[in-house]
Specification:
Keywords: Cell membrane, Glycoprotein, Kinase, Leucine-rich repeat, Membrane, Receptor, Repeat, Serine/threonine-protein kinase, Signal, Transferase, Transmembrane, Transmembrane helix. The protein has 14 helices and 59 strands. By secondary structure, it is an alpha/beta fold. It has a domain at about 610-905: Ribonuclease Inhibitor (Leucine-rich repeat, LRR (right-handed beta-alpha superhelix), Alpha-Beta Horseshoe), CATH 3.80.10. Helix 8 (about 255-265) links the parallel strand 13 and strand 14. The chain is globular. About 45% of the residues are buried. The model is unreliable at about 1-40 and about 910-955 (pLDDT under 50). The structure holds 2-acetamido-2-deoxy-beta-D-glucopyranose (4 copies). One 2-acetamido-2-deoxy-beta-D-glucopyranose (NAG) binds near residues 105, 126 and 128.
């Protein structure tokens, strides 16, 4: 649906601006026309030699790569040159209009030789250097436009000498100025535009402007205008003829209203959007009898529409979008009553209004645009709604509106309706079908209880965008042969009752670019001719249905399609060659069978995402992956692929997600050294072997997640693994890894820092990780940013736990269990204060449990069992929550949890031992069991218990 930006600045303002442009352009045309007429009549106008010379001199300083001034050489009479106009009586050059000619270079002083010039427009070129002082001597100048160039340096104060000037446009240059004194001398000035200049030092700008008695239009857009200094306002006693005041994108606070209230009584249009105004709207509008347009959007104004607005009887546009208004909406609307007949555009959205939709609004009979989107409005739309006969755009989305869709009979101009994200729970009035101008309707995310029939679409021949998604009780009853009166661009019926039959009428829509029928209760096969998709289609989402059939061979289709999402259906059969112009192909959770050999027959250079997760695919992977150069995410997990991982994976240089887990891949990993963008690598639960190669750490610097769990990797951990600054999940468990733990683990930045910075990970929206946390497999998406897990359990590690592990201050889960680690538990273990899971069980650790364990306040799972630990279990409330099994199998340990007294303890009462680590009990039972539970709703049913013995021999290379 189209966004807000188009309405943001208000159409009336745009029209006013347009009038200014047209009128100035018109005056220019008149004078040049006059010149032409005179040259063709009896009075022969020849330009002055001296002025011609000056023009040529001026041209010499310019860079004219596009040869825009060619006529300046071909013609003798300079009055006939492009952009030059002379007085028809005297022959003096009076106008120089070189607007938008791609000219560059510097302006020399030669302009001084054109003393009769009254119009000079050099706007929208690439002039640089300083604005020449000499312009200040062109005393007849009335119009000076230098906008959108690269002039730099300070503005010459001599410009203040131009007492006849009525139009000055210096906007968008790199010029600087300390104050605006020179401007206040321009007593004839009517139009002043200095937008995009830096006003941060011109604190007295309001005084300077107030001294321009003839000023009608002031435009200072994005000027870093400082707030108005209230103290200086008392000096202002003059008032101007200002009508148009546009000061958006500045630093103005509410005190600007005090200035506005005094500067003019003629204001027609005020634009102050994107400033820093806070608090309620002050009482500055009582005398603005002529005000047509007011834009205060994107500030932090509070309260409501003040009583002073009751005198605005001509108001046509009011824009208060995105502030903090929190008044009762009905009350605020009451203060607009004088504009009841004139108001055409009302934008109140993105505020905190409360109360119901104001019935009074339906008396604003001229209203064309109404936006009260996202404003916590409740209640239902009134019966009188159809009085708004001029309405074109209606945006009331993101509120709490309930009830039915109103009677809209007679609103024949209405073209956009957005009632999305509300609580509408009634039906749709049949009059909807009469809205012959309707192009866009968004009713998504309501609870509409509607059986949509052909009546609802009767005259909607202009309709382009339809979104009725997420209305669970919204169903369709149209005849099989229905031929709708429209050709849609976008149709979204996700999570509605569309099925069980496939909606054949969608086949009549030959201009669709987006079609979303996901989760729509369709349990049918797709009609054969459906796959003759319109060329315009770029997004196709049929996911989460029970659609059966085969995925067709689309290779002959020549149109680009961005997304095909058929995931979670019952598609079956072999995969055909991929469509060569598809970007994302999501086929997960279907019943596709066979191997992937077909994919080599087409080049699919634009394929970015290929998701075949959870199908019945098998066989060896073909070695043609260099054809998919743009591939970003590849998920082949949970299939039965076997054989080696092909070496051509190494050419997938854009790849950031590689998921091959839970297949039967074997052999060694090919080099992925060039896949330097990888952030997620999951190869878990395969039969891969060989050493963990050093390039993993030295090349894959972007990696967040590396899971190699349950394979036959062997050898020692390369120390290069410590140079993965972003890694937050490192799971090497259940392999044959030997040697000692690297001494550099504290270099893993994400593990070692507890800071917001580490959490600020730019996780792509399609990121999905299956990770075992506290023994159960869970799915992580955006929340991967908070994971910090290091698991190297069930390997053959020897040696001691290096002290530097206690500097991995960000760790939330550490599992070193089931190795052959010896020595003491480092004394500073308690530094790992955010640790939630700690498993050191089944090693040969000796000595006592360090006292610092009492600092492990977040610990929810603790297992130190089956070691050689001795001494007293340190006592803290947290440690008391663990039961015997956390400590069992350590002959020398004593303490409450083990129900054994330590030497030297006096007689004591029975230790009170409470429940302990509830849900994680299985870790402490001594069996290392990893249970995978249903990880997608609707796809429960697979429940694997894996009991792996790591008795494979390390194949030597
Ligand atoms: C000369 O131009 C003026 C406007 O600049 C116009 O009013 C006048 O009619 C013109 N005279 C001739 C002879 O074209
Ligand atoms: C001024 O413009 C000329 C021509 O466009 C260019 O060659 C020169 O580098 C520019 N000077 C500066 C300071 O940008
Ligand atoms: C709703 O408005 C609030 C301001 O009141 C804004 O912060 C928020 O982003 C808006 N939400 C949407 C969905 O536009
Ligand atoms: C797919 O279609 C193309 C073009 O129509 C054809 O050349 C190719 O043989 C087909 N492939 C399969 C496996 O059907």
């Amino acid at each position: 649906m189209s966004g807000r930006s188009s309405i943001h600045s208000g159409s009336v303002l745009a029209r006013l601006l347009w009038l200014v442009i047209v009128s100035s352009a018109a005056s220019c045309c008149c004078s040049s026309a006059a010149v032409n007429i005179s040259t063709s009549s009896d009075v022969i106008v020849r330009c002055m030699e001296r002025e011609k010379h000056a023009l040529l001199q001026f041209k010499q300083g310019l860079v004219d790569d596009s040869n825009a001034l060619a006529s300046w050489e071909s013609k003798e009479d300079c009055c006939e040159w492009g952009g030059v106009a002379c007085d028809n009586q005297t022959g003096h050059v009076i106008m120089l209009d070189l607007y938008y000619n791609l000219l560059g270079g510097e302006i020399g002083p030669s302009l001084l030789e054109l003393p009769y010039l009254y119009y000079l427009d050099l706007g929208y070129n690439s002039f640089n250097g300083t604005i020449p002082k000499s312009i200040g001597s062109l005393s007849r100048l009335k119009v000076l436009k230098l906008a959108f160039n690269f002039f730099s340096g300070s503005i010459p104060p001599q410009l203040g000498n131009l007492s006849n000037l009525h139009t000055l446009d210096l906007s968008s240059n790199s010029v600087t100025f300390e104050n605006l004194k020179w401007v206040s001398q321009l007593s004839s000035l009517r139009y002043l535009n200095m937008s995009y200049l830096n006003f941060s030092r011109a604190v007295n700008w309001p005084q300077s402007i107030s001294q321009l008695p003839s000023l009608m239009e002031l435009r200072l857009i994005l000027c870093q205008l400082p707030d108005v200094d209230m103290a200086s306002l008392s000096f202002i006693n003059s008032s101007t003829s200002l009508q148009v005041l546009h000061l958006p994108y500045n630093f103005l606070g509410s005190s600007v209203f005090c200035w506005i209230g005094n500067v003019s009584r003629n204001l027609v249009s005020i634009d102050l959007h994107d400033n820093r105004m806070k608090g309620p709207i002050p009482n500055a509008f009582t005398n603005m009898d002529f005000l047509l347009s007011l834009d205060l959007s994107y500030n932090q104004l509070e309260g409501g529409i003040p009583k002073s607005f009751r005198s605005l009887c001509r108001l046509e546009t009011l824009n208060l979008l995105s502030n903090n208004f929190s008044d009762r909406l009905e009350q605020s609307i009451g203060n607009l009553s004088c504009a009841q007949d004139t108001l055409k555009s009302l934008y109140l959205g993105d505020n905190l209004w409360w109360g119901s939709f104001p019935d009074d609004l339906t008396r604003f009979v001229s209203l064309q645009e109404l936006d009260i989107d996202n404003a916590t409005m409740s209640g239902s739309l009134p019966k009188s709604f159809r009085q708004l006969s001029q309405l074109r755009t209606l945006r009331l989305g993101h509120n709490r509106l309930s009830g039915s869709f109103p009677d809209v009979t007679g609103l024949s101009l209405l073209s956009t309706i957005d009632l999305s994200h509300n609580q509408l729970n009634g039906s749709l009035h049949d009059s909807l079908g009469q809205l012959s101008s309707l192009t866009e309707i968004d009713l998504s995310r309501n609870s509409l209880n509607v059986v949509l029939t052909e009546v609802h679409f009767l005259n909607l021949s202009q309709l382009l965008h339809v979104d009725v998604s997420y209305n669970p009780a919204f169903s369709f009853r149209v005849s099989l042969s229905w031929n709708p009166p429209f050709q849609l661009d976008e149709l979204k019926m996700a999570s509605c009752k569309v099925g069980p039959a496939f909606p054949k009428w969608t086949l009549t829509q030959r201009r669709l670019s987006r079609l979303d029928l996901s989760n729509a209760g369709i349990s049918d096969s797709i009609p054969d001719n459906f796959w003759d998709l319109p060329c315009s289609l770029s997004l196709l989402n049929l996911s989460i249905n029970q659609i059966h059939g085969r995925f067709p061979n689309l290779t002959s289709r020549n149109c680009r399609i961005y997304l095909i999402d058929l995931s979670s259906n019952r598609f079956c059969g072999a995969l055909p060659p991929f469509h060569k112009n598809v970007s994302a192909l999501l086929l997960s959770k279907n019943k596709f069978t066979g191997d992937l050999s077909s994919i080599c027959s087409t080049q699919a250079p634009s394929l970015e995402i290929l998701d075949l997760f959870y199908n019945l695919l098998s066989g060896e992977l073909p070695n043609c992956w260099f054809q998919f150069k743009e591939l970003l995410a590849l998920n082949l997990a949970n299939n039965s692929f076997s054989g080696k991982i092909p070496s051509s994976f190494g050419s997938l240089e854009s790849l950031y997600q590689l998921q091959l887990q839970r297949n039967n891949f074997s052999g060694e990993l090919p080099s992925l050294e060039n896949c330097t963008r990888l952030v997620l690598v999951d190869l878990g639960f395969n039969n891969l072997s060989g050493k963990i190669q050093a390039w993993i750490g030295s090349s894959l610097k972007e990696m967040w997640v590396l899971q190699l769990r349950s394979n036959h990797f062997c050898g020692s951990i390369p120390s290069s693994i410590c140079s993965l600054p972003l890694i937050r999940v490192l799971d090497l468990s259940q392999n044959n890894i030997s040697g000692v733990l690297p001494r550099c683990l504290n270099n893993l930045t994400a593990f070692s820092l507890v800071s917001q910075e580490v959490d600020d990970l730019p996780v792509p929206s399609d990121f999905v990780l299956q990770h075992i946390w506290k023994g159960a497999e869970r799915e992580y998406r955006q929340d991967v940013r908070y994971l910090r897990s290091f698991d190297i359990s069930s390997n053959n590690l020897t040696g001691v736990i290096p002290e530097n592990i206690t500097y991995m201050l960000g760790l939330r889960s550490l599992n070193l269990s089931r190795n052959n680690l010896t020595g003491l538990i480092p004394g500073k273990f308690g530094q790992l204060e955010v640790l939630e899971v700690l498993d050191l069980s089944r090693n040969h650790l000796s000595g006592s449990i360090p006292d610092s364990f009492t600092n492990l306040h977040s610990l929810a799972v603790l297992n130190l069992s089956i070691n050689n630990l001795s001494g007293r279990i340190p006592s803290s409330t947290q440690l008391l929550t663990f039961i015997e099994s956390s400590f069992a199998g350590n002959v020398g340990l004593c303490g409450t949890q083990l129900n054994t007294k330590c030497p030297g303890d006096g007689p004591s009462e029975d230790p009170e031992v409470t429940g302990g680590a509830e849900s994680d009990g299985f870790i402490t039972t001594g069996f290392y069991v990893s249970i995978e539970i249903g990880f997608f709703t609707g796809f429960v049913g697979v429940c694997l218990t894996l009991l792996r013995k790591t008795s494979w021999r390390c194949s030597s290379v």
